[in-house]
Amino acid sequence: MILTVTPNPSLDRTYEIPALDRGAVLRATADRVDPGGKGVNVSRAVAAAGHRTLAVLPLGGPAGAALGGLLGAEGIEVVAVTVAGQTRSNISVAEPDGTLTKINATGPELTADESETLLATVGERSVGADWIACCGSLPRGLEPEWYAELVARAHRAGARIALDTSGPSLTAALRERPDIVKPNAEELSQAVGRPLATLGDAVKAAEELRAGGARAVLASLGADGQLLVDEDGAYFGSAPAVSVRSNVGAGDASLAGFLTAGGTGPMALAAALAHGAAAVQLPGSQMPAPADLEPSAVTTTDAVPLNRVLTEPVS
To answer: Does the keyword Nucleotide-binding apply (predicted)?
Structure first.
């Protein structure tokens, strides 16, 4: 069982259009509404894979009620912490070439009592969880150290933590030694304060995060693939997608694949790659089911080509 924590969830509406023409009246060729937020997406991917998951999240107002209903319809057990503010709604506009324009709302401001209730609820419901996945940005009212406190409490209770966040929240949490952190290339570059031009640069940056406290690093490098750096060394893998329809939630699907495959080693990396490649070929933030996966397209190696230049270098 995988428990997810999403401090700032959302309702995500995606419109598919022929082209984004500013100032024009655009007609969508398709649209959908999905539950949103990194941890929410991890739960959706875990459920789609046939595993049990609990989604702990603050919910408020009609949007929060709608979000809880959508998750329940996907077979996800929702553990709601009621908050006074309104759950946010986000909009994404997808073009045929894969370009995605996103408008993310700020979301509610949590009170000190709501913050503590959220932490306590995670502790109460994490009994028996194989992993706790803490994902996404923090809403207003939560300090960057909030994730660090959650990791510390979870470890005291004997739970394993996967952390997908960035900036000061990631930096603060490293001292509590999360079992795995999952940055993308931009977040990895930001964490070490320098550009990433090659796979070797990414490996070195991941090793620095491990030196700072992370026990393992699973880094998404976009079209270049993914990198896993842990106590046993570094592994690199790729799974080219035939076509990209929407990359919303692809990283979250990857994390779900990694955790459901055990959360360690090259086999889990291969599962992460298969899930991520499948996700980008689906509309909106739809999560892949087992039938969508193509494991045969995945390659992994411990002979990381350190000199390979990244297709999308981070400056």
So the answer is: yes
